[in-house]
Amino acid sequence: MLRRLNILLLEVGGDIVDGVGIYPEQKEELVIRDIHKQYSKFYEYLSMIPDYIEIIIMPGNHDATRQAEPQPAISEDFVQEYYDDPRIHMTGNPLTAELHGVRVVSYHGRSLDDIISAIPGMSYTKPAKAMLSLLKKRHLSPIYGGRVPLAPENTDYLILEELPEILHMGHVHTFDYLTYRNTLVINSGTFQSQTSFQKKVNLQPTPGKIPVIDLQTLKIVKMEFI
Ligand SMILES: [Fe+2]
């Protein structure tokens, strides 16, 4: 199936690993309790991906980098083998890039927590709607003082100056997408089943449902691995 779709680029939108000490009962749920070993395990999975596929990796709030946004790339101290692999591109969060001629803005999506709790009618089951509200506001994290720590940079890298053709986020572990005017708004979901923390906040993830996008037509194929 992967070969037939001729995938050339894989983007991983952050929270590469679960980390350690993220929520109170997390330690009981972790199979690997060392963050270095978590990154090594994920690299084993990356190594199984056909070598003609380029891989982009950005950090999320579970990753080993500064929590304040914009986030620098995950440090080499934790993922040296990723930096040594020429087909892996380690980036910060957010990322604006032209991928095979398509303007893409990728953002891990931590501000979705703020948006979903602040705006009536938003929910974790339909994150694309919350993402659309960010697109319309032209800012990836428009609420100050909420759950997103913001770094005091001279330039605001979270402003959406130019509308992308694809706006990609993750964080809320739920596959969802919509098209608004000329922008495909997509949340790429997760491979993690529901944690005890997610149960408490009533977040029902959609593990193993992954979007594949044709960059010529912006059409989506949903692949299901579970
Ligand atoms: Fe996250």
Summarize the structure.
The chain is an alpha/beta fold and 226 residues long. The protein has helices at residues 2-5, 26-29, 35-47, 76-84, 111-118, 127-137, 196-200; strands at 9-12, 54-57, 88-90, 95-99, 102-106, 166-169, 175-180, 183-188, 209-214, 219-224. The mean pLDDT is 94.
Strand percentage lies at 15-25%
Q: How big is the Rg?
A: 17 Å
- How many independent structural domains? 1
Quick one: overall form?
Answer: globular
Give the strand order of the largest sheet, numbering strands 1, 2, ... along the chain. 4-5-6-8-7
Largest sheet: 5 strands, mixed
Give the proportion of residues in helices. Answer: 10-25%
Oligomeric status of the shown chains?
single chain
- List low-confidence stretches: none
Query: What is the name of the CATH class?
Result: Alpha Beta
Bound ions, cofactors and other small molecules, one mention each: fe (ii) ion
Distance between the termini: 15 Å
Mean pLDDT: 94
Structural class designation: alpha/beta
Order of helices and strands: HEHHEHEEEHHEEEHEE
CATH architectural type: 4-Layer Sandwich
DSSP strand count: 10
Number of helices: 7
